[in-house]
Amino acid sequence: MPPLPLVAALGCAVRLEAGSRPPGEVAAISRAWGDATVGGADPLPARHLSVTVGEGPLEAALAGLSQAVTLAAIEARRGELWMLHAGAVADEHGNVVAIVGPSGRGKTTATRALGAHFGYVTDETLAVAPDGTVLPYRKPLSIIEDAAADKAQRSASELGLGPLPPAALRLSAIVLLDRVPGGSDEPVVTPFPLVEALPELVEQTSYLGELPEPLTRIAAHAAAVGGIHRVTYSEAIDLASALAPLFRAPGEVVLAPSFAAPARDADDTADTADAGDAAGTAGTRWFRAAHLDAIGLTGADGGQRIALLQPDVDGGATLRILDGIGPALWRAADGRAATALAAAVVAEHGTPPEGDAEVAVQAAVRALADEGVLATDASWRVRDDVAWTQSDEGAVALALSRAGSPEPVALEGTAGAIWMALATARGASERAIVRVVADGADVAADEITADVAAFLRSLRDRGLAQRFAP
């Protein structure tokens, strides 16, 4: 029985294993994946993976195989590529237009309609390298042929879609889908400000929080392709002519300088706080809460915004967009008290025509604190120069910065739980870590607060953790 093909998925080579499938079904699986096979001229794969076809009826197994290959490839490339939940097609010059939208918005239908005129790149996940290079994933398309059955998996060739061009693929446009059934006969393509498009792009990105400078990278890719566009349309068959002008050579992907000030060791915040106290601003000190990235944006009204991507304690990430006096407060929150924050806001926005500036600032600070944007204590994270691995009992960590021959530290039981909360969060306040550990152990937070605080400081003393001011 001939083996199943080796397929290309997001720069990985994936060996499909037939399991116990009979020869006739193996041939059907090979046909479905025939357009995704690794070619002799393809670059060396970043990873070699293996996925076995599941049990059960063939159509259900094919649908499960598509999902399994996609998830395996995404998992393998996390932290390396911008992976958008998007369909994509390419022109003969290798210019790629990405069509972005959540499940059910019509990506596959739109990709199929566009693929009749352009080369099919993917209908599921678009992988973009830091320089804008696109890695194709020509998986079978999931087509509804029987409403009562699983979606059929059909190759691009079976559906008459175009082949890939010989030219290298480069991202040339990012388009958000906005289908309006029964709407205008002519699709309308309009520029869409990044400040408005960013929530959708973040939502449709896999493992965004694991990319270096994730928001900065999205902004750089958007700038390289001339900004984000939105297409409002009724029928997918009308999209090709409307999107044709977007197939154009992109610019260079250039990362803007970091918007946020570099994080500092929390011990360094003493000078800032003391200076504020000397100016009569004694009181609660406010810090920026942990964040993975921050970029400045301009709203439709011309006002300045700050987009923050903040780590969640469960390993995810949350996008927040600050407006009004929020950006000024966030920039000033480096350990200052409320009076100093009010002075910073007045310096940037002027004295309010009515009311007391400090009262207004205190209300805004409380609102930002409730959202987790500001905090009254610095954050904790695993140091960059620490190697660690998860074990059956917890974790084992090694401080690479220690001179000589550093000894690995076994972290088990409650110590392991605290370490995993710290490592998963990628930056969190002491209070947030206490909440996670308390919830996991089903105990009251105040019962373990002192122990968690003491253990975090012991990790710092061992060179394993860092208390920092973002």
Automatic annotation (TrEMBL):
**InterPro entries tied to this protein:** PQQD, PqqD_sf
Pfam family, any one: PqqD
The protein's matches in SUPFAM superfamilies, at most eight in alphabetical order, are given as: PEP carboxykinase-like
Per the record, the domain of life is Bacteria
Q: Which Gene3D superfamilies match?
A: Coenzyme PQQ synthesis protein D (PqqD) (1.10.10.1150)
Q: What protein name does the entry list?
A: PqqD family peptide modification chaperone
Q: Which organism is it from?
A: Microbacterium oleivorans
